[in-house]
Amino acid sequence: MKSFLSDRFAAIYTRFATKVTTLGLLGLAFCFLALTVLGWLCEEVWEKETFRFDAVLLLALHQWANPLLDRLMLSLTRLGNPEFVVGMVIVTLGWLLWRQKRLESGVLMIASLGTLLLNDGMKLIFARPRPTLWQPLIKEISYSFPSGHALGASVLYGFLAYLFVRRYPQRSYLIYGITIAIIGLISLSRLYLGVHYPTDILAGYIIGLLWLSICVALIKHFD
Questions:
Q1: Among 201, 81, 195, 210, residue whose Cα is nearest residue 146
Q2: Active-site residue, 149 included
Q3: Pick the catalytic residue: 196, 198, 201, 205?
Q4: Quick check: 143 and 130 in contact, CB under 8 A?
Q5: What is the distance between the alpha carbons of residues 65 and 76, in angstroms, rounded to a whole number?
Q6: Helices (DSSP H) in 47-167: which residue ranges?
Q7: Which listed residue (149, 163, 187, 208) is catalytic?
Q8: pLDDT (tens digit, 0 to 9) for every residue of the chain, 223 residues total?
Q9: What are phi and psi for residue 49, nearest 5 degrees?
Q10: 62 classed as catalytic
């Protein structure tokens, strides 16, 4: 009996260790790939190189423009606007403090500050002009690279999704699915409105996911 339990425990431990190791290796592989792509994007933007597919994709998307989609995309883009995001952060921070989640509230502030510094800092460093392929419906005065909406939405909504999954793990697929859809629609609105290139969005995603991963790792480490 003792031998059977020992063998059973050893088998369970082996499967668990293998799963953790696999996830760790996958995480490292993702980070390496993400940093490689980000490095390539940054190098090209720094050298003022143009991405031909950027303009092609934007012009193809603009062919679908119509008054109904205009209103829809203007509404969607507001979900990533600074004033909306700041309001969401304040509400979430208040909720976390009310529930005495000091670790999560602290990491949320770190995540928010880091997002602001990364976005504004990289925009100033690369100073990429906004697209001028057509007259946009909204006016943006900041630089284009990376997309602050894609970066901020990835961090904020990704962080909220992580908190909800911790509370409702049985609904993780639904939560993450809705989150990905929201982030994707916000990013699509930026392209449709003509204020970002696809490569701006891609860079925003990569930076946001990497920063979000660090913030989530902080929670897991100190929890």
A1: 201
A2: yes
A3: 196
A4: yes
A5: 15
A6: 52-62, 67-77, 82-98, 102-126, 148-167
A7: 149
A8: 434 334 443 443 344 334 434 446 677 787 888 888 888 899 888 888 778 889 999 999 999 999 999 999 999 999 999 999 999 999 999 999 999 999 999 999 999 999 999 999 999 999 999 998 888 889 888 999 999 999 999 999 999 999 999 999 999 999 999 999 999 999 999 999 999 999 999 999 999 999 999 999 999 888 7
A9: -75, 150
A10: no
CA–CA dist 86, 89 (Å, integer): 5
CA distance 1 to 126: 67
| Residue 90, token pair as written in the block | 């304040």
Tokens of residue 122, six digits: 């990289």
Return the structure tokens found at 128. Answer: 């990429």
Which residue is listed with tokens 């770190």?
Answer: 110
Asked if residue 166 lies in contact with residue 159, where contact means CB atoms within 8 angstroms, the answer is no
